[in-house]
Structure to design on (288 residues):
């Protein structure tokens, strides 16, 4: 009896780890993208220059590579007056553009709900999904994932005067998450009740208006929301939230496209392009 209880506990713990993003299922870590220091403005030109160099080296085919995203996740994807791909701007959009150009293709964006991305891949509406998407065991059953390009973690956004100092402190608080994000999976696994919103900005409004006590969301996006809204702060808890790896998803079995994407990502990780793009957008967004 005692043994089976232990076994169940172990299984639950394993599920929790994999569901909250894990170190075990990743093929590459790129901590530099996270910790890169802000770069000077000229660096943006260097990034764009290397993209156009890559374009020159590969014959133009005029093929379009359609990426699905959910442009509600700054600094990775958001709508701007003029973005890197049409009106879409952010780290992921710059990476998508580079990947397409490295393969002599043009990047196009289909903006949709985060929850619809893997379905859109399956039905061929998009070629790839790039959306700050964490690789999880569940998602790996629905899609194939590229080499990972960014390391993040879930954090808690609270009011500056909040007494929440750890994930356990959320137990008797009103928690807001975004539907389908790994933050929702983590809170669910912690066993706390929560309310799920369709957009990060909607959850933040609840917090700002005092209708909820804490929003659980990815680290870089949390930083952006805290910068944009007075009176908020970030609380981290590394023991409750593991690091997560972002990757690009393709339809299961589409190894031809996955190989192209992986080659381009690996080049961009090795030559510092991903770190430059990340630093540039994090700096741009902080300076706004
Ligand atoms: N990294 C989180 C996830 O994969 C959030 C991604 C997003 O909102 N774009 O669920």
């Amino acid at each position: 009896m005692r043994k089976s209880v232990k076994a169940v506990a172990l299984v639950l713990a394993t599920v929790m780890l994999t569901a909250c993003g894990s170190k075990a299922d990743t093929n590459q870590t790129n901590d530099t993208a996270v910790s890169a220091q802000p770069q000077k403005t000229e660096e943006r030109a260097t990034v764009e220059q290397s993209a156009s160099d890559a374009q020159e080296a590969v014959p133009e085919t005029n093929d379009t590579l359609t990426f699905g995203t959910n442009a509600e996740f700054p600094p990775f994807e958001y709508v701007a007056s003029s973005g890197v791909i049409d009106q879409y701007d952010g780290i992921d959009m710059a990476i998508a553009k580079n990947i397409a150009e490295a393969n002599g293709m043009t990047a196009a964006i289909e903006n949709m709900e985060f929850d619809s991305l893997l379905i859109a891949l399956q039905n061929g509406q998009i070629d790839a999904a790039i959306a700050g998407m964490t690789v999880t065991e569940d998602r790996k059953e629905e899609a194939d994932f590229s080499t990972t390009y960014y390391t993040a973690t879930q954090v808690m956004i609270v009011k500056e005067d909040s007494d929440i100092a750890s994930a356990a402190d959320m137990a008797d608080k009103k928690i807001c998450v975004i539907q389908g994000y790994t933050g929702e999976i983590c809170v669910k696994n912690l066993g706390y009740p929560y309310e799920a919103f369709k957009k990060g900005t909607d959850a933040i409004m609840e917090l700002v208006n005092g209708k909820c006590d804490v929003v659980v969301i990815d680290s870089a996006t949390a930083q952006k929301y805290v910068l944009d809204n007075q009176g908020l702060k970030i609380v981290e808890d590394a023991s409750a939230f593991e690091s997560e790896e972002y990757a690009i998803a393709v339809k299961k079995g589409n190894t031809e496209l996955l190989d192209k994407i992986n080659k381009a990502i690996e080049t961009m990780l090795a030559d510092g392009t991903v770190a430059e793009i990340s630093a540039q957008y994090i700096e741009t967004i902080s300076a706004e």
Notes: The pocket of glutamine is lined by residues 70, 73, 114, 131-134, 181-182, 218 (CB under 6 Å). Residues 2-19 form the longest helix (18 residues). The longest strand covers residues 150-159.
